[in-house]
User: Which sequence fits this backbone?
């Protein structure tokens, strides 16, 4: 007899493979029901889920306080604690994001293109759900809600495995969401949270080919590297957010300072934060820019030319150019020109988000064309690298690979397509 999520409890002694396979089978059955629901019904169910999450605010915040206290006792970094911590405003934002996803246009059923070749067949490519999506994530309890909402809106089942540092927050958010979804007619097994923190359960998810259709990892470098190395299921992933901002010789000094400060210091713990600042040797206000960063509390690690400008600059090591700090630390290099900036980015970027600040449109267009990152910006802070800011609603992650989806992955990135062929009795000669 197949064991489903309805009768699995955290105290069960199932081995991880049996546990994950049972949950995945239940998810696949629920996904078929979910995909058959009218789009308006899925949207209405998500609105119910958002309301249930708002109603559960006291319970979720109490659970989160328990996680934060445990994280502080364990010595989690400031960036990790910032990702973990919820308050009424952040939780309201999470609920609002669920409701916003409900109101997004449904990609399922969209006709991508159609044609009628000489044989008279009418061929159409139509968007359909991917199926069952496993999301493995660390620290951020908002991912529980974002991933669930995006998957449900696009007709996918979600199998969630959050990190141990947010275990109580994740369970409280998941419980509220499922309560609302079920009230809206969505099968409970369409959104499941693994009831164990056993690391072997991650391995079981990664090898559940045929039961899980895609894995999305969201976390640190070690997690993503493990997923990519061990997965037998397609992976949609991003590695480090080693994001660059290049201050071109023709940059407006005030704009350059505003963008640099925001890109680094607005929120240091998010993947869109700038980690390396490149400054053109011909930019006239380099000393002032470095001083402004340091005065705002940013530790600057610079190359020899940058270190010579301010005694507070710490000499950069070779590793600094390949480090995602997720903290108020910034590596800064002076480059001779646009070619040198492009070469540095090609060598050190993680292909997440890279930006240029300049009033020279030709230089900007060359940068936008030649930098091979998922997101490339002109005169804007890298902190805009976010699905919500792109008008996509919540995002399930930012993909830095080249296949299937790239950049902020929202509803469209959670669909695939199938061919529909309509004939009038044709047979192939």
Assistant:
């Amino acid at each position: 007899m197949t064991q489903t999520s309805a009768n699995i409890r955290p105290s069960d002694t199932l081995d991880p493979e049996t546990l994950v396979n049972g949950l995945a089978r239940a998810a696949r059955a629920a996904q078929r029901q979910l995909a058959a629901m009218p789009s308006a019904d899925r949207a209405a169910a998500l609105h119910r889920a958002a309301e249930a999450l708002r109603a559960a605010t006291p319970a979720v915040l109490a659970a989160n306080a328990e996680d934060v206290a445990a994280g502080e006792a364990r010595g989690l970094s400031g960036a990790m604690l910032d990702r973990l911590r919820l308050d009424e405003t952040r939780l309201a934002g999470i609920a609002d994001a669920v409701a916003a996803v409900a109101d997004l246009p449904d990609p399922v059923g969209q006709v991508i293109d159609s044609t009628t070749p000489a044989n008279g067949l009418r061929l159409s490519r139509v968007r359909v759900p991917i199926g069952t999506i496993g999301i493995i994530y660390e620290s951020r309890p908002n991912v529980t809600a974002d991933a669930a909402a995006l998957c449900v809106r696009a007709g996918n089942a979600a199998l969630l495995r959050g990190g141990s540092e947010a275990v109580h927050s994740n369970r409280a958010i998941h419980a509220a969401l499922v309560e609302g979804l079920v009230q809206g007619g969505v099968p409970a097994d369409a959104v499941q949270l693994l009831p164990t923190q056993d690391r072997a359960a991650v391995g079981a998810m990664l090898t559940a080919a045929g039961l899980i259709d895609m894995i999305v990892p969201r976390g640190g470098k070690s997690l993503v590297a493990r997923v990519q190395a061990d997965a037998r299921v397609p992976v949609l992933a991003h590695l480090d957010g080693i994001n660059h901002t290049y201050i071109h010789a023709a940059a407006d000094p005030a704009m350059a300072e505003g963008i640099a400060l925001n890109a680094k210091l607005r929120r240091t713990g998010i993947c869109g934060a700038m980690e390396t600042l490149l400054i053109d040797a011909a930019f006239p206000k380099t000393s002032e820019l470095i001083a402004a960063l340091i005065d705002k509390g940013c530790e600057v690690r610079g190359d020899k030319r940058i270190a010579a400008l301010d005694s507070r600059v710490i000499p950069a090591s070779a590793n600094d150019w390949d480090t995602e700090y997720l903290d108020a630390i910034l590596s800064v290099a002076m480059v001779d020109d646009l070619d040198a900036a492009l070469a540095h980015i090609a060598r050190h970027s993680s292909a997440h988000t890279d930006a240029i600040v300049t009033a020279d449109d030709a230089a900007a267009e060359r940068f936008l064309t030649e930098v091979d990152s998922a997101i490339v910006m002109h005169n804007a802070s890298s902190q805009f690298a976010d699905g919500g800011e792109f008008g996509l609603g919540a995002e399930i992650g930012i993909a830095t690979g080249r296949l299937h989806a790239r950049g902020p992955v929202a509803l469209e990135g959670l669909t695939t397509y199938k061919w529909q062929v309509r004939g009038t009795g044709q047979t192939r000669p």
